[in-house]
Amino acid sequence: MKNPRDIIKKPVVTEKSMGLVEENKYTFIVDMGANKIEIRQAVEELFNVKVDKVRTMRVKGKLKRVRNRWGKTPDRKKAIVTLKEGQKIQLFEGV
Predict the structure, then answer these.
(1) What is the annotated signal peptide range for this record (predicted)?
(2) Whole-angstrom distance, CA of residue 18 vs CA of residue 94
(3) Are strands 69-72 and 76-83 parallel, antiparallel or unpaired?
(4) Beta strand 25-30 pairing with 76-83
(5) What is the pTM assigned to this prediction?
(6) Which of 33, 53, 70, 85 has its CA 20 to 30 A from that of 61?
(7) pLDDT at position 94
(8) Strands, sheet with 51-59, edge to edge from the N-terminal-most edge strand
(9) Domain 4-86, what fold?
(10) What does the pLDDT read at residue 78?
(11) What pLDDT, in 10s, does the model give residues 20-50?
C-alpha cells in the first residue's frame, strides 16, 4: 500500500466544500493514480475516522495566459469523502 500522506495531498477549502462539511462530507485533492479503496484507507488512517462513501472526480486543468504565453494548470483528482454518522475531522473545524 502507498503511504497515506502520498495519497491525500491537501484539503479543499472553498465556500462550497465548507458547506458540505455540515453534511459530513469532506473534500480532498488526491493522487491521480489513487482508487477509492486507497483513498478510504488513507483517510481512515490519517484522521482516525470511519468512512461511509468515497466519490471521486477528475478535473482537467484550465488554459491560462501569463503575459504573452499560454500555459495550462495541472490536472487534478478530487475526492469527496462521506463519514459515518457522528464522525468528524478536526482539521476542518476552525476554518
Answers:
(1) none
(2) 11
(3) unpaired
(4) antiparallel
(5) 0.88
(6) 53
(7) 62
(8) 8-11, 25-30, 76-83, 51-59
(9) Alpha-Beta Plaits (3.30.70)
(10) 98
(11) 999 999 999 999 999 999 999 999 999 999 9
